[in-house]
Amino acid sequence: MIHLRNALCCLILLALFVGAHTYERNDVTNILYEMDTIYNKNKDLRTVVPNDGYGDPLNVTMTMFIYSINGFYAVSGQMEIAVSLNLVWYDYNLYKKINSSSIKNVSYVTVFYSRIWTPNFVLLNDVQSVERINSESYYVTYSPKDGKVTWNPRIILKGSCSPNMTYFPFDRQECSFIFSAWEHDTSQIKLVTPVSSWDTSMYEGNGVWEITETKSETYVESSGQFDSYYAKFNIAIKRQPLFVLVNLVLPILLLAALTGFCFLVPVSDGRITYCITCFLTFVFLLQTVEQFLPRTSYPLSMLAIYVVLMMLFSAVVSIITVFTMRLHLAPSKEKVPKWLQFFLKTIKCQICREYRAKREQYEREKLQTNGKVTFAGQDKYGISNSHLYEIPPEPVKEVDWPEVARSLDIFFFVLFLGVQGVFSFFFLVPLGTSA
């Protein structure tokens, strides 16, 4: 008897459960049938904005969710991101016309976006085509209790933006994605961004770019015939420069340092070949840098300007090397001109050493005469003492052409390393400080 009573209770509960779900399923069917009657049997109604009918525009809220940065292409000037738009509005056409008796047990229903009124949103700065944002894969959620409509399409945005490669590879880029409710003026639709930033909670990260700032705003602008609302979503990203530093910047710095050592390569071991190889390598590196940069004249990358200058330095080194090699191979019978000998003495500080030697001799003579200044070669009594205190003059050594060439090699080696160091400091320090 007890078992029969328990079985009967289970059957009653099962019947109530199935009946409740059948009742709810029937309510959903009724609501979908009424929505189909309102919109799809009167398709012109889908072009009418479902506002409250009191002259106020329909508020459409927009929130941007970002999933990933697929790429930033500086050469073509575009950025590709995977996002979803959270669009919310209230459909007063459905809310006023659906029978209230059908919504007691229904919290929401899902329908195709094409079977209900949806705003005609377009991305104005799309690099492919200006088309309506739509997707059959994502349903529209409608709440019959208050008329709230929610649509979350996930889309791939490819927007155009102006890259700024001045501080490449420590560059920061900023791109904007501008949406508009096409062909709807401010009296029909008002765009609203409830939050001032994007939702990055589902962002997957990127190995090249790091998000530094996001911003959302709306504004009104005239489109020629009437004023319309626009939604502008800004994103600022910063490059992670380690890959470019290791594979591009470091070889450029090493090659710039190696170019100056051209003057230390022996003439018989292919000095001119070494210089030309450095020059051609700079040409190759310049072409490699240009692969990362857009084909614009302004603003130019400081790294590209640095490589061009180093390439010009390499060309100047090659030209000077040709002349120094001619000096190495000059006939030994030809005398070195006086002006070139004076220049060599200047760069080797021989003039300074001769002046210092004369100064030391003068101090010794002054010390021997107890501070009394006498003529050169005389003591305080006027007696000649040149055999005791006078330093015999050094014999004048003739300067030959190989010595001139060796001295010029050292001079140009130090000069070019110094100049390259100065240029490297003034070009690369601003790049590092901008990171």
From TrEMBL:
Cellular component annotations (GO), alphabetically ordered: membrane
Domain Neurotransmitter-gated ion-channel ligand-binding: 47-241
InterPro entries named in the record: Neur_chan_lig-bd (IPR006202), Neur_chan_lig-bd_sf (IPR036734), Neur_channel (IPR006201), Neuro-gated_channel_TM_sf (IPR036719), Neuro_actylchol_rec (IPR038050), Neurotrans-gated_channel_TM (IPR006029)
Signal peptide: 1-22
Key words, A-Z: Membrane, Signal, Transmembrane, Transmembrane helix
Transmembrane segments: 242-265, 272-289, 301-325, 410-429
Topology term for the membrane: Multi-pass membrane protein
SUPFAM superfamilies attached to this UniProt entry: Neurotransmitter-gated ion-channel transmembrane pore, Nicotinic receptor ligand binding domain-like
Compartmental location: Membrane
Residue ranges of every copy of the Neurotransmitter-gated ion-channel transmembrane domain listed in the record: 249-364
Protein name: Uncharacterized protein
